[in-house]
């Protein structure tokens, strides 16, 4: 029986200067960089290849850049005969999953995520929002902490349920600081402030979701050819209307990553291929279930190894 494979896609934080460069001798791969430049009317490819890193990390640059590299590598994998049975992406990575599942064409997806980044950047002025990773605390206990912090200091909520013992919280700066303080008092191992540009996946992003809804309604989403396991429900979905609705909810709702991975394993996935820069998701999947195979594909060397392993 053929292995059940899931392609999984990283989100913001995985971007690095030079990502994707080793694929660019291939003409079809280079077209992704050229297309992104043309759609956005800017030299995104130069920023991706030369930096500076601080400029690449700005959310409205990082989002289309990560999508471009992940989509480029996906095309190479499929051309080499490696195809997914499911796709999923962490936060922004969900858009790469939608491209892989033929829900959005790549040029339209680049335009959408660039605007998504602008909307997110505009939703909360710099310095007013924050995010932090809480280690060693169960979700239900941490939710009590964030509820108490919200009532006493400012809005804060669970944002990314990444893996056992690692949950990210998001909200107002005061709310996050209070929640970190309470979490440590109530037994969390660590509370680590994250260097991010906004309070992603919190209620503070709801204003941005209204703008995103308008952009998505003007885009042409198709039913998925490969089921997408969504951040919002951690269930496989193929219906275009439902997927569009979940992208809107995703902006201000928790990313159910641990639940998504467990769902894919339940559906028979034995191999997770992380498609894009870095190995963050590979590490999270291993913490969720050590029995599954995880293959990161981020450069030409790792691509060639993956193809050999998955097609022989």
H-E order:
EHHHHEHHEHEEHEHEEHHEHEH
Instruction: Please summarize the sheet with the most strands.
Output: 4 strands, parallel
Mean pLDDT: 96
Radius of gyration: 19 Å
Spatial shape: globular
Give the assembly state of these chains. Answer: single chain
Structural class: alpha/beta
Please bin the fraction of helical residues.
40-55%
Architecture overview:
The protein has 312 residues and is of the alpha/beta class. It is 49% helix and 16% strand. The protein contains 13 helices and ten strands. It has helices at 27-40, 44-50, 53-57, 59-79, 93-100, 106-123, 139-152, 173-185, 206-217, 240-250, 257-266, 280-288, 300-311; strands at residues 5-9, 86-89, 129-135, 156-163, 166-172, 190-193, 228-229, 236-237, 271-275, 293-297. The chain has a four-stranded parallel beta sheet, with helices on both faces. A four-stranded antiparallel beta sheet has the order 4-5-3-6. Strand 7 and strand 8 (236-237) form a beta hairpin. Helix 4 (59-79) runs antiparallel to helix 6 (106-123). The longest helix is centred in the first third of the chain and has 21 residues, at 59-79. The radius of gyration is 19 Å and the shape is globular. The model has no long low-confidence stretch (mean pLDDT 96).
For this entry, give a set of tags:
312 residues, alpha/beta, 13 helices, 49% helix
């Amino acid at each position: 029986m053929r292995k059940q494979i899931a392609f999984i896609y990283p989100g913001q934080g995985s971007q690095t200067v030079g990502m994707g460069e080793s694929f660019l001798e291939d003409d079809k791969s280079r077209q992704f960089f050229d297309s992104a430049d043309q759609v956005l009317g800017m030299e995104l490819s130069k920023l991706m290849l030369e930096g500076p890193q601080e400029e690449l990390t700005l959310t409205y640059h990082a989002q289309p850049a990560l999508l471009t590299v992940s989509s480029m590598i996906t095309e190479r994998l499929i051309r080499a005969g490696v195809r997914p049975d499911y796709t999923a992406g962490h936060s922004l990575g969900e858009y790469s999953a939608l491209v892989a599942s033929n829900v959005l064409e790549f040029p339209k997806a680049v335009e959408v995520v660039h605007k998504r980044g602008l909307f997110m950047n505009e939703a909360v002025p710099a310095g007013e929002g924050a995010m932090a990773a809480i280690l060693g605390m169960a979700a239900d206990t941490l939710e009590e902490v964030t509820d108490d912090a919200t009532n006493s200091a400012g809005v804060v909520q669970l944002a990314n349920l990444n893996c056992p013992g690692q949950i990210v919280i998001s909200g107002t700066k005061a709310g996050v600081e209070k929640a970190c303080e309470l979490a440590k008092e109530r037994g969390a191992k660590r509370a680590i402030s994250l260097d991010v540009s906004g309070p992603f996946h919190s209620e503070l992003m709801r204003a941005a979701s209204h703008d995103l809804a308008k952009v998505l309604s003007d885009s042409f989403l198709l039913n998925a050819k490969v089921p997408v396991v969504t951040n919002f429900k951690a269930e496989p979905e193929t219906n275009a209307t439902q997927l569009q609705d979940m992208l809107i909810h995703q902006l201000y709702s928790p990313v159910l990553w641990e639940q998504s991975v467990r769902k894919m394993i339940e559906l028979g996935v034995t191999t997770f291929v992380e498609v894009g820069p870095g190995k963050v998701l590979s590490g999270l999947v291993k913490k969720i279930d050590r029995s599954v195979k995880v293959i990161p594909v981020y450069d030409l060397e790792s691509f060639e190894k993956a193809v050999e392993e998955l097609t022989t």
